[in-house]
Sequence to fold (228 residues):
Amino acid sequence: MRIDVVTLFPEMVDIPLSDSIVGRARKEGRLKLGFANPRDFSEDRRGTVDDKPYGGGTGMVMMAEPVYKALKRVKKKGSHVIVLTPKGGKLDQKTALELATHKHLVLICGHYEGIDERINRFADLELSIGDYVLTGGEPAAVVIIDAVTRLLPGVLKKEDATINETFAEGLLEAPHYTRPGVWRRMKVPEVLLSGNHKLISEWRFSAAKDLTAKRRPDLIRKAKLEEV
Ligand code: ADE
Fold:
């Protein structure tokens, strides 16, 4: 997959995605990450990319034209264009799975008070990573790229690593343990040491349901609604 990010601050996205699993996916060519900076398309010598909001108010608004030109530089036929904004639909695992099916994503990061509304005409989707306001779309781009990259074929070592995990079945995942069997007088649940795969799988499903009911009853309700 290829992902291009339209951003005034490419390093805010490039550096956090240079290590660990996503870093490796980039080195292996499974994820190709590119950038386009609206500043390079500014129409004056000072590199201006923002202006005061029409109608007054605090803060500055990113101008449509430099963002549009940066988008045009990277957009191809079939690109899926996403504007990152706290006003967008909320990212969840289902959305990440859908995004992972595209060949090319373009993520547009706003900064300051956001981007001139008219840029949305060129987007397929407006996306938020949660109900809080960031200083810009860049940390949101990092989150989305991470969530999508780990779903790409060959990125996670174990083929099924994404199958049983949290949210895959609409539930939080059962707890994990590793050696030692007793740590600071706390024991690993006996069933996990039994070697009985059927019992272990039943225990995990039941633990996942209990945890979800306790912490995220909204997910249980949603799973039930999707069943009918
Ligand atoms: N830009 C600022 N806040 C954001 C959020 N919560 N999600 C996506 N983009 C943003």
